[in-house]
């Protein structure tokens, strides 16, 4: 009797529900020439209930002091959003780019202080090896299931052009996840696979 072939590791990659979700939606890109380009890494662990990699930023930083964020920052000249997100994750939390499987880019978002941000969705090992830089005081890794079970606070605000938007705040273990990070999380939690 012939031996059954070993499963192809690519099958798991191609069937990733997050990759399938990305392929079935149209990405919304922004065109804000006066805004500073940035990228963040939206890292989900490879687990049944993925954990999302978040950082608590140092109070000594020039922007977003003490806020909860995805690893990320400004694009360097000639850099793509994917390259910037991987570089920043390496610099901030020691995440080896070779351990990251980039799935694609999520909808662009902007911040009130003039950043145009491209979130880069990626899969991480279940137990990634991480090392914090001076920019990060703490790691947070809530599961998507826990965040989905959380009822976010909502606040309606008017944009400068008069359009109304809803801002979200997700409370988690004594922390408030808000701003651009909460907007990206909200899209994942309400639109992504369960």
UniProtKB/TrEMBL annotation:
Presence of the UniProt keyword Ribosomal protein in the record: no
Keywords annotated in UniProt: Hydrolase, Magnesium, Manganese, Metal-binding
Swiss-Prot/TrEMBL cofactor(s): Mn(2+); Mg(2+)
Gene3D superfamilies assigned: Nucleoside Triphosphate Pyrophosphohydrolase
GO MF annotation: an example: metal ion binding
Nudix hydrolase domain mapped to chain residues: 35-164
PROSITE patterns tied to this protein: NUDIX (PS51462), NUDIX_BOX (PS00893)
InterPro entries: CoAse, Nudix_hydrolase, NUDIX_hydrolase-like_dom_sf, NUDIX_hydrolase_CS, NUDIX_hydrolase_dom
PANTHER family: MITOCHONDRIAL COENZYME A DIPHOSPHATASE NUDT8, NUDIX HYDROLASE
The family this protein is said to belong to: Belongs to the Nudix hydrolase family.
Name of the protein this chain belongs to: 8-oxo-dGTP pyrophosphatase MutT (NUDIX family)
Organism of derivation: Deinococcus metalli
């Amino acid at each position: 009797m012939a031996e059954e072939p070993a499963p192809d590791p690519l099958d798991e990659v191609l069937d990733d529900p997050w990759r399938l979700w990305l392929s079935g939606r149209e990405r919304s890109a922004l065109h804000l020439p006066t805004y500073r380009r940035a990228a963040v890494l939206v890292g989900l662990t490879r687990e049944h209930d993925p954990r999302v990699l978040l950082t608590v930023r140092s109070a000594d930083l020039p922007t977003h002091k003490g806020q909860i964020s995805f690893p990320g920052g400004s694009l360097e000249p000639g850099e793509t959003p994917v390259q910037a997100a991987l570089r920043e994750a390496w610099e901030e939390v020691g995440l080896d780019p070779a351990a990251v499987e980039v799935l694609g880019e999520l909808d662009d978002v902007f911040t009130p202080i003039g950043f145009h941000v491209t979130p880069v969705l990626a899969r991480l090992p279940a137990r990634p090896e991480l090392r914090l830089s001076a920019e990060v005081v703490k790691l947070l890794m809530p599961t998507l299931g826990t965040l989905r079970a959380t009822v976010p606070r909502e606040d309606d605000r008017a944009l400068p052009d008069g359009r109304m938007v809803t801002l979200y705040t997700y409370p988690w273990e004594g922390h408030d996840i808000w701003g651009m990070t909460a907007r990206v999380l909200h899209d994942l939690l309400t639109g992504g696979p369960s």
